[in-house]
Amino acid sequence: MRWLFASLLAVLATPALHSADEPLRIICFGAHPDDCELKAAGVGAMWAAKGHHVKFVSVTNGDIGHWRESGPALARRRKVEVEAADKSLGITTEILDIHDGELEPTLANRRTVTRLIREWKADIVMSHRPNDYHPDHRYTGVLVQDAAFMVAVPRFMPEVAVLKRNPVFLFYSDRFLKPNPFKADVVVATDTVQARKIAALERMQSQFYEGGAIGGPEMVPDDPQAQAKRRADVRNALQNRDRAAAKQFREKLNDLYGADRGAKVEFAEAFEVCEYGRQPDGAELRRLFPFFDK
User: Fold this and answer.
1) pTM beyond 0.85, yes or no
2) Which CATH number belongs to the domain containing residue 275 in this structure?
């Protein structure tokens, strides 16, 4: 057992090997075609604007995520929507062919997630936490967490080149407290890209304007005035998600940006470093998130 523990420590502590000038490679996993965008579209757009390579992966195809539509037609519609949203932000998109609501933490799915991380040559990997209200969210988190060690094991899937260094794995923010609450290790101000993020989310009309899986016909009124009000309400609700994050994690914003700038941040996205994968110190986090000039 000692050799296994030593091997694990070596993987988790592997230092960054490329220069600060080399573009970063970030891959984000969401359970459905809108999850990455809700949680990380702002920071994704900011990375992309700096020349870094960002990919959003939906682990299911979203084919039951609407109150009126379902099946292949809905999966196609959501694919078009999310691809348009991500393209507007400079982000690459992939959707896996797994039915919405049916994701399981199988060996086959672990292999798929591991392969995607290796093929992207990721420096950063993001996902849901394993404790979440939706089973697809939970199992996305489990699969990514399971991959946090396997990406560095040469004899697991030897047909796909193993990573030379273990990525930093991070979780999206959430409100769940049991068995453990979310802890904000990184909080990024998204004010400069917030308008672009909201415009991208609004492209996913099936999920937001029409209400997604638990919406209803009352969300798609015929009257033009009611339609305008509905769109304004949706926009405000989306804005308020990131506004609430800035308020909740103000202390961390002040720490990262300085008190003067941190106090003025209106919108933010927050992330927790997973205890699996590489464990970055403060200096490396600032290199991986190059947005904190005070």
Assistant:
1) yes
2) 3.40.50.10320
